[in-house]
Design a protein that fits this description.
The chain is α/β, with parallel strands linked by helices and about 425 residues long. Helix content is about 30%, strand content about 15%.
């Protein structure tokens, strides 16, 4: 292994202190129906009480034991006396962007230890932009009347990240710890509660593209997906997980049953191994060919496409010859793909530059000309450090220092699913 790859962590090496601590904290949130049934039986209760608790946690979105009114007061007392709590991660701070995006600091500290860790979750409502919206009001107390017709929640899978991509602000944190399945799913449920979302009635997408590398926290990530599908009622076809190219993770993912498998996005970000390994040291461990081979093992649904994300770095990855190489690479595999171009979002201390608007257009035109479906992801919430690669638990007010970063909206935004 080369020097850089020595920094990489194997699939299961990262510590997960909250998971270790979870037994002591006795959090109900994060347990599925079967596990809740067992806990109820342990307390001498009938197992169907577990179903009631699951309903309360994941459908009614209770925050405290006192709100589980389907249980008797006596049973709630028994749960509390045995050290149980709801334990859903709470939104501790909210940053609102001029474009409607909200960035949340979500508390994930091991309960009762006094140590508070936060991760970032982002809510991105799509403004009507001339499209038909349903115009109905949101029921959340803190949110304004509903002005979106579809929304995306961007979810974190780790505190920080070990992968060390050179252009990414999250990388600067290093890996602090893995999130538990409950902490990953809890971000979503907390946002659903805040926004008053009725599952099944709203057009809602989840993207596992926040802090961290989901495939380096595979079991907790998939545990969260199973909770979100099985207990919360969300569809895996409206979820996309993004990976920097962790091949053993992609291979496991390919084995997941289609009922719980989200869609896949690969952070390609470079046209060839030479450039990619410079930007993403992980490429020395699993190069583009290895990643493409693993992706090819996934049994796609009808009409499903694999997304390739491509961050455009001014002068480094945004040139016409790069676009031609990307087109050749993707076409050579014959997979159903689409490309999401992301203009690089700046961050302090990261020595890259944004692509020129002309370069973005030219890049897109070349891919489109080669018959590849290509979208430009509209930068969301840059003024509050909520955009891709900017998640670094920034808790200070950022509007002043970053106002120079706010740009006019791109003319053609991504229209994903
Ligand atoms: N760790 C996973 C998912 C989180 S990163 C992954 O890397 O795929 C989500 C996306 O943001 C990735 O495609 C990544 O390449 C992109 N990204 C990271 N830093 C960025 C930045 N500064 N500007 C724009 N996109 C960035
Ligand atoms: Fe980690 Fe993704 Fe950032 Fe790379 S781009 S450092 S994998 S969060």
């Amino acid at each position: 292994m080369k020097a850089e790859s020595g920094k990489l962590v194997p699939l299961d090496a990262a510590k997960s202190p909250a998971a270790d601590a979870e037994g002591c904290a006795r959090r109900l949130f994060g347990l599925d129906r079967e596990a809740l049934k067992e806990r109820m039986e342990d307390l001498g209760e009938p197992s169907w009480r577990g179903r009631q608790v699951a309903e309360a946690l994941y459908r009614q979105r209770v925050e405290g034991l006192g709100e589980i009114t389907t249980l008797s007061k006596q049973l709630r007392g028994k749960l509390a006396d045995s050290g149980w709590e709801v334990g859903r991660p709470a939104i501790r701070q909210v940053f609102k962007s001029v474009d409607g995006t909200e960035r949340y600091l979500v508390e994930c500290g091991p309960a009762g230890t006094g140590s508070v860790e936060t991760v970032e979750t982002v809510w991105m409502p799509e403004g009507d932009d001339g499209e038909a919206g349903d115009g109905s009001d949101s029921s959340g107390p803190e949110v304004q009347a509903k002005s979106w017709n579809r929304a995306t929640i961007c979810v974190s899978s780790q505190v920080g990240c070990a992968v060390n991509c050179q252009f990414c602000l999250t990388a600067k944190l290093g890996l602090q710890r893995n999130l538990t399945a409950g902490e990953i799913a809890g971000q979503v449920v907390s946002v659903l509660a805040r926004q008053g979302i009725e599952v099944g009635k709203e057009r809602l997408n989840l993207v596992f593209m926040g802090m961290g590398e989901p495939f380096l926290n595979y079991d907790n990530f998939m545990g969260a997906v199973r909770l979100l599908v099985g207990e919360v009622g969300l569809s895996p076809q409206r979820m996309t997980v993004s990976t920097s190219g962790i091949v053993p993770g992609i291979e496991r993912f390919a084995q997941e049953p289609v009922e719980v498998r989200p869609k896949l996005a690969i952070s390609l970000n470079a046209p060839n191994d030479l450039i990619r390994q410079e930007l993403m040291p992980i490429n020395r461990k699993w190069n583009i060919e290895a990643v493409m081979d693993a992706v090819g093992r996934i049994q796609l649904r009808p009409r499903e496409r694999v997304t390739f994300e491509y961050v455009l770095l001014g002068g480094r990855t945004d040139q016409p010859e790069h676009a031609k190489q990307v087109a050749r690479l993707l076409r050579s595999r014959g997979l159903p793909v689409k490309v999401n171009l992301i203009a690089w979002n700046p961050g302090p201390g990261i020595p890259y530059s944004m692509p020129a608007p002309g370069a973005i257009d030219a890049f897109r035109a070349i891919l489109a000309g080669e018959g590849i479906a290509v979208y430009l992801r509209r930068p969301r919430g840059r003024d509050i450090y909520a955009a891709c690669g900017q998640l670094k638990r920034t808790s200070e007010k950022t509007s002043e220092e970053t106002s120079a970063l706010i740009e006019p909206k791109e003319s053609k935004e991504e229209r994903d699913s």
